[in-house]
Design goal:
The chain is an alpha+beta fold. The chain is built from eleven helices and four strands. Strands 1-2-4-3 form a four-stranded antiparallel sheet, with helices on both faces.
């Protein structure tokens, strides 16, 4: 719990490699995560080669840690391997649909979180890259992913070269619901997000972007509706290209 409560995203890394033995321990810890039916519908693409990082970097909006990290892991849902095994055993599978796509995403994220905690336990720093889904089609091409395999998230990993502050989180009151979901009234919503609005960083973002409040920074600058619709449609198309019926 102490390790989990101290988590920080690390985006700057020392020029120090991660040995194969430690990386194997980390990924082995990852695959001990819970998964559906012990089918392990995931794969991990390990990128160490600088030339391949250069290919991936623009697809992650050129975030510096993609090039700087000694190891970049692309976590993929993978029904290809299990379906191939079924084919060899005359087992009629039906896993190329929305249910199993979502199942693969869940299993992949459980794997990813175990990997992250295991890495931090060895003194490494990690950062999740949410950009993976935005440019999944191009990442598929770079990593040569066959049908049935889809990139879900990416983790940059290395020995920390920075000591950052922890990012704010909602109070438990905003997350926990006893027995059934208790919807929020306006007063509760204002109280829950008041801390975020009062942060100096939030006030700075508001001023820099000429907005009235931090909520508008999220909706008008960071995650715009038009961008969301564009990438959502692109994502749906790519899911279908990879052989999933949705």
């Amino acid at each position: 719990m102490e390790l989990l409560l101290k988590h920080k995203s690390i985006r700057k890394y020392q020029k120090r490699d991660i040995c194969n033995e430690d990386l194997e321990k980390i990924i082995k810890s990852g695959i001990r995560a819970s998964n559906t039916g012990n089918m392990q519908l995931y794969s991990v693409i390990v990128t160490r080669d600088n030339a391949n990082k250069e290919k991936l970097a623009p697809l992650h909006f050129n975030q510096p840690m993609v090039r700087q990290a000694p190891v970049v892991l692309t976590i993929c849902l993978d029904i290809n391997r299990f379906c191939r095994w079924c084919d060899l055993n005359d087992a009629d599978h039906g896993y190329n649909n929305m249910l199993w796509f979502v199942t693969g995403v869940i299993d992949s994220m459980l794997l990813a979180q175990n990997i992250s905690v295991a890495a931090e336990n060895l003194g490494l720093g990690i950062c999740y890259l949410g950009t993976t889904l935005y440019n999944a089609k191009e990442i598929i091409d770079v990593l040569k992913l066959p049908k049935g395999v889809f990139p879900v998230t990416t983790i940059s990993m290395g020995y920390p070269d920075e000591d950052t502050d922890q990012v704010d989180r909602l109070d438990l009151e905003g997350v926990i619901h006893e027995e059934t979901y208790s919807d929020y009234d306006d007063e509760t919503i204002r109280r829950l997000f008041e801390y975020k609005e009062k942060l100096q960083s939030s006030k700075q973002f508001v001023a820099e972007n000429g907005k009235k409040n931090i909520a508008q920074v999220f909706t008008d600058v960071r995650y715009k509706k038009g961008d969301s619709l564009y990438f959502a449609n692109k994502l749906i198309e790519t899911i279908r290209i990879q052989g999933f019926e949705i």
